[in-house]
Every structure is written in C-alpha cells, then in structure tokens.
Amino acid sequence: MKNKIINFLNQFDIKPNNLLLFKQVFTHKTFSNENKKFLHYDRLEFLGDALIQFKISLLIYKTFPKITEGEATIKRSKIVNTSSLAKIAFNLKLNQYLQISKGALEILDNPKVNADLFEALSAAIYLDQGEKKLDEFFEKTIYNLVIDSHQILKDPKSQFQEYIQASTKQNATYKVVWNNEVFEAKLLFDDQIYGIGKGKSKKEAETNAAINALERLKKNEIN
C-alpha cells in the first residue's frame, strides 16, 4: 500500500512529508471501523470540498471578469459536483488505492465515494505540500474544466425544460429521496424516468439527474 501511494503521488511530483496523511485519504470508514488504528478520510473530505469550491470560484472570478454572479454560480456548480469530481477520480483510478472492508466492495464504483476521494486527496495535498502544489495538482486535473470555453453556462435543469417545452407546455418534475448518506433524484416527465442523479444536496441531485437526462437524449437513449 505504501509503495502504491508513493508511486501515485510521484506522477504529480509530490514527495509526501506525512505519508500517514495520504494513507488516511485512501481509508474508508468501513475499513477504519474494523481497524481502529486507521483514520478514515471523512475530515479530509470536508476540508477538500471547501478548498475546491474556493479555488474554482477564484479561477472563475479571475478568468471571466464580465461574468455575473448567477452565471459564475452555475458554472461552478457544473464543475464542482459529485458527477464531475467522480469522473476525475475515475480517470485517476483513485479507487484502486482505497482500503475498504471486505463486505463493502460494491462501493468502489460509487460516484459519491470517488468524488469524496478526490476531495480528501486535495485536502491532503494542501496540508502536506501547501497551496502552490495544490494549484499544480488542480492544473492537471480540474482547472481545465474552468478554462474550457465550451462550458455551457445555462443550468442543466433549464436546458432540459427548454427541450421538452419545444413540443409541450408541461413541466418536468423531480422526485428526491435520502438514501445511504446521499440524495437521489429522478427526473420524471410524461410518466417516464428521463434521468437519475445523486448529490450531497437536493439541488445537486436534481442537477445531476438533468445532466443524465441530457446525456441520454444526446445518445438517443430516450425519445
């Protein structure tokens, strides 16, 4: 485990001062509950979430001087959400390093768990290496989402609503439930489930459900 983490960090020119901190990043609470000497990543996730929100907000502010508050908020929400952070984590294969209990193997592909891993890793880099190294890490992983000029500012929920109102005056509805420490939303229209999304809040879950619906429409998976 130690060598795997070190090899992973070497990809980003990170030489850990406190390797235990990075071991904590890759320790799920199911493993920690069975092995009391190991700390799990929840506290790091909390800090990482705040750091990502701040750094992305700052970059949006500097990159788009004429952007309105509302547009900036929408842009940030499209970048800092469970779905996009999970995609980054999957690309980095962070779940390959995760220590979990034998009875919880199914969570390895859980989007929220993977998003949490990226947040926890971000916090560990900041605490162990400082803000400059965190910026370098973000340059290789998430800042490109801000710079991408093709990012659409319009809220995904509004995009989907405009799509259906091209042929009907009906509105889409969202059914949100709390399930296993995460909100799950279903986008419903014409008695059909168009999209499903998860998030840390009802708003994020609904947004991810709309994103899922738009992606399915592009792939012609739904009419």
Structure commentary:
- This protein has a 3-stranded antiparallel sheet with strand order 1-2-3.
- It is globular, with a radius of gyration of 19 Å.
- It has 11 helices and 3 strands.
- The chain has helices at 2-10, 19-25, 29-34, 42-63, 69-79, 82-92, 111-129, 131-141, 143-147, 156-164, 202-218, and strands spanning 173-179, 182-189, 192-199.
- Strand 2 (182-189) and strand 3 (192-199) form a beta hairpin.
- The mean pLDDT is 89.
- Helix 4 (42-63) crosses helix 5 and helix 10 (156-164) packs across helix 11.
- The chain is mostly helical and 223 residues long.
- It folds into 2 domains: 1-149, Ribonuclease III domain (Ribonuclease iii, N-terminal Endonuclease Domain, Chain A, Orthogonal Bundle); 156-221, Double Stranded RNA Binding Domain, CATH 3.30.160.20.
